Prior knowledge:
The structure holds 2 protein chains of 2 kinds.
Chain A (H helix, E strand, L loop, with lengths): L2 H19 L1 E8 L2 H8 L2 H6 L3 E8 L1 H13 L7 E4 L3 H8 L18 H6 L1 E2 L2 E2 L2 E13 H6 L10 H11 L7 E4 L9 H11 L16 H17 L9 H9 L3 E7 L2 H5 L11 E5 L12 E7 L7 H11 L2 H11 L10 H5 L1 H6 L3 H10 L23 H17 L4 H18 L5
Parallel strand pairs in A: 1-2, 1-3, 7-8
Antiparallel strand pairs in A: 3-10, 4-5, 6-8, 6-9, 6-10
Helix pairs in contact in A: 18-19
Chain B lengths: L6 H32 L5 H10 L9 H10 L6 H25 L3 H9 L4 H12 L1 H17 L2 H5 L8 H6 L9 H21 L1 H8 L6
Helix pairs in contact in B: 1-4, 1-7, 4-7, 5-6, 7-11
Amino acid sequence: MTIRTLFLGACSLVALTSLAGAETLTIATVNNGDMIRMQKLTGDFTKANPDIQLEWVTMEENVLRQKVTTDIATKGGQYDVMTIGTYEVPIWAKQGWLMPLEFGADYDVDDLLPAIRDGLSADGKLFAAPFYGESSMVMYRKDLMEKAGLTMPDAPTWDFIADAAKKMTDKDAEVYGICLRGKAGWGENMAFLTAMANSFGARWFDEQWQPQFDGEAWKKTLTFYTDLMTEAGPPGASSNGFNENLALFQTGKCGMWIDATVAASFVTNPKESQVADKVGFALAPDAGLGKRGNWLWAWSLGIPAGSQKVEAAEKFIAWATSKDYLELVAAEEGWANVPPGTRASLYDNPKYQEAAPFAKMTLESIKAADPTKPTVDPVPYTGVQFVAIPEFQGIGTAVGQQFSAALAGTMSVDQALQSAQALTLREMTKAGYVK
Amino acid sequence: MQTRSDYGRHVMNSVVIAFGSTFLGLLIAIPAAWSMAFAPTKRTKDVLMWMLSTKMLPPVGVLLPIYLMFRDFGLLDTRTGLVVVMTLINLPIIVWMLYTYFKEIPGDILEAARMDGASLAKEIVYVLTPMAIPGIASTLLLNIIMAWNEAFWTLNLTAAKAAPLTAFIASYSSPEGLFWAKLSAASTLAIAPILIIGWFSQKQLVRGLTFGAVK
Lengths: 435, 215
């Protein structure tokens, strides 16, 4: 046996030993630009932590939700890090399905935006670390607004929006004053309508969990929405979701669009949008009752309880949601591509402010949302555009179908509300909330 | 695309799951279809109907028990687990198709083989199978395509290691943002292998599907 053979053998052994010692984290994540970017940049993490390997499972939002919920509820143990939203965190934390997160001083947990941090905490403990946060705001065409002889205020009212939408509409030129979500689903039209209803003084439930669709506030909300969309919305709006409205806005067919703040980077990107240089931003409208019609969402990273790799998972989450990660993205992809909406320090950074013209409005929108007190009147639940109870996905989608039908004109506003009230009451009674 | 997903691993998983479940299914279904076609009992029709009825149950209805069983047997995110589940799902269709093809073969030929001293195994392997090759081939191809395209179980029972091409495509669909180019590229890559197999075997497939149609 030569020395060379011995040396090669020793090298192989060392390599095998190090591989055997490496821990593999399986990370379930949602397919959006920011998450894919993180996947691309993980070399930075594995270089600093050679004993940790990463396996990625990237999924469309609904598929991901179904998979991780099945896994965590049955303690399947397939994932070590899960990407979850502000809807899941309070419910799962209450069930004891998530590990509380504790980071060192250098993580600077106090730098996290309070609204986002509150949405991801239960009993004062943080159960998921925010990767990126979003709210909703008004995106509007500055040229069309000027043509209509109006100036968009930073904080418009619903009446102003309705007036502007009607004046901007030119149906012959296929320009519609306003584009809003109409496609049925708890995360589609109901995200928008629940947030809008909050600003009109409506709420899903009173403090005894009685559904409130038979109240005046909901009637006002739905009537305003359907009237506005009938007069100034695009045809077939009842099947429009985020992607459909994005395409309409980017091709110059919408005067205003109220939707996720994350859309700001798409509509101002000249490679994708025909109206990139004509877009202005404003806060979501209010009705003078002290609440705005904007939502709050954060895609966050959490560790399922019972995970065997908590330490490694915590290391990864600390890396992905740290200030250093924001610097890394800025260095590799530019400041405009940094995941927004999680850290206050990002919005103090002049380089970010310069690269992202929508930064100020995004921050203001996030600050304007309070997941712990989402409505004018008190409610027994948390969540701005959703109710953080397990039953909400089913109920929200069923109610969304009624409201989508009201928008399509196949049922009246009154019928839709009656039907929503009946089905919500039935489901809440069945689930034991209503005695 | 390769920087984001391990395409090779997804293809390999799809190949193992689709071919593995098909061959395992045929191994069970050929003797079963033989007995139903050539040695029927008065309950054969009922058994066939019962097998077909299992296809009428919405898969999500049995997701949880199967998921729990997989968890307990350590089969989550394994190719073995998926081969087993895909075999069981497609077995009724395989048995039904083979039963229909076998019924077209005259029983006298098998009887003649038996008279010449052929054992049951020899009768199936050397007499029945060669005569039913077009039927078996088309069943095989159809089943490979069904297993290749199956998205419910392959998405729900896998995570990273055993995820086939259906999971690869799902990872490119997004409700926030229009990524048509990436999604189209992923779809093309996902259907390419099965398209090539289908192209080379279309003659067999057509022959098999029309087998016995004209007497």
